[in-house]
Amino acid sequence: MMADYELFTLSNGIRVVYQPVTHTKIVHCGFILDIGSRDENPHQQGLAHFWEHMAFKGTKKRRAFHIINRLESVGGELNAYTTKEKICFYASVLDKYFESAIELLTDITFRSVFPGRQIDNERKVILEEMAMYYDSPDDAIQDDFDELIFGKHQLGRNILGNPQSVKSFKQTDFREFLDEHLNTDRIIFSCVGNLSIQKIRRLADKYLGSLPRFTGRTQRLHFDQYNPLRKSKERAVTQAHCGIGRSAFSLTDENRIPFFILTNLLGGPAMNSRLNLNLREKHGLVYAIEASYTPYIDTGLFGIFFGTDPNQIDRSIAKVLGELKILRERPLGTLQLQRAKEQLIGQLAMAEENNMQLMLMMGKSLLDLDTITAFDTLTAKIKSVSAARLQDLAKEMFSENDLSILTFLPK
To answer: How confident is the model over 83-93, as pLDDT tens digits?
Structure first.
């Protein structure tokens, strides 16, 4: 990450961060809000995600068609997503249309009117989205795995909600949710492109500075009650699917970066990950297998996911547990450790070449850590990790008795 980003705070508390990038005609920008599905009350399950949909369905001065057409008609893109802890509305446009993008994003984020007819229409769309995810075992097992790890805690709930809650939402539910949680001190407007900082400041003042200060408070219930569980479900699938993992380290834990190294070595996106080499290349048991680590503000989630022939599920699980045992019992050699570090550093550098991902990362980092870590600083932290520390982490995190296992088996 280059250190020459600009950061300033408007009078209403919204922070604006801008990273200049030369030799591009495209601007990526968006609002990142510190609100997510874990902030919902039980009767509100799925409301954050529903709000993300409804933001595009009408504001005080635009109907849905005008929102969609505003940037699409000039070749731009408008999008949004919801996670357990964040909602983001963002756009990518040619730099000459940046003012249109910031004006439109401000309009849909803060001035949505949630038309009743559109709520009914979008309700059907979200119920179809739920059905689509349920019919995709790769997606469904990850949602069910969240529930296995986090139980009845908000982190264990499906971001989409449930059919009963989604069918119940009315216009007042959206307004109440925004009043409860919208807080301008916890909103970032992030931007990456080849524009002058003067233009960024002028347009931020013009469109964001006039917004009122919102003071909603998000009181998050911390998670600290992990209990390992093993569970099998019968599903209408032809392939067996499996999730293996546990709760993990939070965003601010000093073990976060070393554990990323360990997870990446084990089952990151590269074809030479240990799990891929063993289960796919050596034994032909899986088409794809991945290990992932998602940190939250107070905890985290570590998971290994794969699909395989039902007759090979026990053998596949044994192979995964065998790789975890190796990491517990054998420290990495000097060359292995160096390669694991260089691989992660290279992957992070490649990710920073994606300006949209850079824009989103800056906003999330400011909300979660109140800073943006320079790439050289991150590289130094990765290089400082020892083989002994990784082995200690493997012993702590990969003990078989502390792992949860979820399987989907054909009916």
So the answer is: 999 999 999 99
